[in-house]
Fold each of these.
Amino acid sequence: MNNIESIQSGEALVSPRPARNFITITTSSISPPVSTTSIDKSFTSKSAEKSIEDTSTNDYNTSTLTANLNGLSIVNTISSDDDILSSSSDEDFEKIDKEPYEDKYIKLSTICALDFVSTSDPSDISLTSSDAVLSVVQRIANMSFFLCLVSSFLAAVYAFFLCAYAILPWHLIYSITACLWGYCLYAQGNSLSLSNSITGARRISMGVTVIQGVAYLLESVMHDKSNNGPGPLSQTEVFSKNPFLYGGSMLGLPIYIVLEQILIAYQKENFRKQALLQYERENAQNAVHCLIDRFSERKGLYLRTIAKQLRNNTELAMTTLKQLSPPNFLSKPHEQLSACSIPIPTASIKAIHTAMKTVNYMSTHLGTLSLLLFTDNGKIALSRVKRNFDVGEMLQKVGDALAGFASNANVELVLYHVYYGLNHINVVGDEATLRYALFDLLKSILKSACTGACVEIGLKVRNSEDADGTNDDDLLDKDTVINPRDKVICTIEITHNFASSGLTPEQKRKSFLMNSAMQFSARVFKFIGANLTAEQDDDRQLFMVSLELEVGPPLEKPKAPRVNEETRKRFPHLRISGEPSIEDLKKFSRRLRGLRVGLHTKTNSHFARHLTNCLTTWSTDISHVPIGGDDEIGSQKADSRPGSHSASLSSIGSRQPSSSGNSENYEDNMNELANLPPTYVIIDDDVDTLKEQLVKLRNSPFQVGIASVLSARGRHK
């Protein structure tokens, strides 16, 4: 076997699978005890919490975006103390009003990403006094405005008094300059921005400086040529004696130039920050859009997965009803049959009930399924639900529920116990989740199977101490005692045997169930602590589900149904026997030693092979008769080793007694029985063969009675 693949949780796909496809009819019908299953689990998950905070800065009239995305966190809770170590009998459908995760459900689709983008033009930057740098620049500008105003005003007054109250052009120039500085000081805090105020002040200061410089040069030249004696002081002499008083506007020019350059550099840096902030806003907008798209994709995947699971599980019940109903009975109205009834096998009723319980499990565990679907493989927590259930009966119910679907797909479904014993043992675990995962996996396998294929489901239960380093053949001859509270390894072997012929390469390729088709199933198995592995070769696929469980209390013996008083009075001698227990069935299997069993089955039937091996381990003399062939039943010896998968279908002989003294009597008894019909007749789903055998039994009832007596005598000798 090649291409062995270990399917990690999350590397395998999921979908419900097929069921058993065989019917057995015996003269003595025996069924294993029926035990119901129950599950009540509460699994709470913290959903993804997303908080988006929008803060605005007053300095630049901008906003910043902060997004905190918290990942998924897993929290397992137990709904009540009754969930642990509670009995699985009389299970009802679970009724949960609302899962805890729904309280924290966040609708990301209500987020508008455009709300996080500022509508203001980044080029229109309003500089306010809230910034520290701008505050210092503004204070320096105001102080310089005030000093220039004071110096210009004092220069005008001083020149007026100095020139004997004569109004000269210089007086007007200083007065106008003082008014301009006063306007700059007033407008800077009201109508003009800081940038415009400093630019205007620089121009005023530069104009006053140019005027004073030109006037100073002209008066200096004219004073030297026209006046050589003492006289009144010229403007040049006055300016020379009081430079700070008359040159205040000129001295403020370098201050305004420096402030203007600082402001220009600051504005450039501010534009750069605005561009970076705008880029971050666009990224934040894209991130919000990505989150919304991701949420939509996850929501779509979740809805598709749940819809597929619901369709698969409801399809099980529909196909079962379709197999039990006459043709076109469910698709067309039949008013004339409204007063009629249809007999339905009890196994089919239980199958429909099991399928509906699976749908109920999905409806009450939507949060858990969503968590398993989107949680990373390494973060999947284990289920803490602990319930007592019969693992063998659970697998039997799964097979019954899938039987209708497998029959409709013309796929043979076989259930067997690996050691051909009765692996009905009470264990403690999450039965509902295990049943749901098996449904999903088996339904996927059945959907991929072609017509004529066979799906074998085997159950193997062994002690944990014997699981490592012990060969399966050695365990056959070893009497293993499993006590309550022991640890056992439950292994479910699922073998998908492809159709032997008639498959095209394309059909054979589609028959392989890929790992991508089991991802969800593997996640569900990991949730309950199970391990799913897969092996494949050219003509089959093998899936193994291994799960360690704790042994629960011994199975209770089924009780006989109660009879009401009215029925008891009408039928005083009526006695209703109870269901056989596992011990009763084991005792009956020991009573089959030496009895002749005739098996009517199809050639190359996988069911016949497993049934032959099982009856051989019970030391029965089994003879195989192909359906549609000769009715003569011969007895030939064959390999009777328990667990052998190579037993011949032509005939299987019984085991020889170990005592040499009884060998001759045993051979004599077998010779006497050679010409008699078998004690039990098993027919594999063939009505015509059943009719023939019933007619034969009716025509020769005495021969059957003699065969039973001689068989019993042969066993006791």
Note: The first strand starts at residue 2 and ends at 7.
Amino acid sequence: METERMYSGQVVPFTLKAYFRSGKRVTLKSAPRLSGEDFLLQSLDEEPRQQQERLNGTVYTSLTWQGTLSAVKEGEVPLTVEMDAEVLVRSRGRLRGNPFGSSLLDDPFFLIS
């Protein structure tokens, strides 16, 4: 968001980006949604803009939505966004000493900014 301070009822434009590591097969299971009752989503693009971006030397596929939201009440409240996605990860085989194979925790694929 371009503004850090909002007032109750004020409509503010925002940009939402989801990053997925390039080369992964991603299926969106839901549109982004606000968590909680402190903000109202006024509008959101139905389809995200998709492009390749490099962050810290790693190539990601980014999905970008534009929208507007408004605050329901004044005060400091967190803005939390959720989205369901399914990511197909190819198995690289088992790591030595790890009976479960490679760790998905070593492969961050989702960031929101």
Note: Residues 11-90 form one domain.
Amino acid sequence: MIINHRLLNIQLGAMVPLMFFATTSTMWRFYTGSWARRSWPSIEETFVIIACNIGAAGCLIVLILELCYGSGVAQEHLDPSAVVMQYRLQWVVFWIYTANLLCIKLSIVLLYRRVFSQRIFVIVCDALIGFITITTVASMASIVFFCLPVNYFWNQHLPNSSARGHCINWEANWLAFGAVHVATNLAIVFLPAPVLLSLQLPRREKIFVAVIFGFGIIPVVAAIMRLLIIRRLTSDFTVYNNVHNTWIGVEMATAIFCCNLPSAAPLLRKWFPGLLGKGERPQRSGDSEMKLRPTHLDAVIRSMCEKSIYRSSKIVKNKIHVTVEQIMYVERIPPGIVASRDSLATKQEDG
């Protein structure tokens, strides 16, 4: 067994910290979300938990196994059985990568859909969810049918193999789906931009929100780097597949971290109270109803499970001061919702 120790050290040095941050951010999101609400995880939280388990456990294990079978070493220096095992592991990596990114993308778009309630935005999110699902299912089908029979994908590399079968041009196939994947990544990153630009936020908060969403560029860059490596796989698969799969791991880990980043806002507000502002009180409306306006940042990242308290006082016709107080989870109230006075906990005081 030939192990490239230099690549092993590089991979462990890069992947272990990234997977640690991805796992830690997922645990933090679960803690500030479902645990704080004492409820089952929401659908987007469920997707990101699945993605974290697939990425952290599956991808890292497979990448290390590939190194144990000579990944990064020229094919002529390897035993044929090691080459076959690398192709088998690569087939598994394709599945892990595709399933992982499907969960991450659905988690982000579903979060968008819940945060921004404008009708046109919801329609665009639904269309994007449908497109992502269809293209991912097609990609998974192409993985199954890379070769017929399936095991011909790796058995054809056995010396003096009597295996018979047929394979599609998996390099072209993987490049095509990779290009679609990069396009959907860019769509997800820039989709909320028009809504964010229209928000009336202080400059510091607008910069902070832009930075949070701007981190989504990192997985896009990793995906582009992975596409550039694909063209080299056919020239010497065993030399370049480890580099290719390392970029896959980087992309998955950073995507999970970016997906969970908004849940860090309550922690940042606690550590840096001057960074995000103190929020606003609700605007006054008519006598019978009141519109609730959440804090600046919570209007954007409503998925956080931080409790917000809104108070306002107004005078009704009989000259009684009514103090209205509502304690709620920000994520449960869509933008622009109108809350009637009867639905709130009220306390009357003499004027």
Note: The radius of gyration is 25 Å.
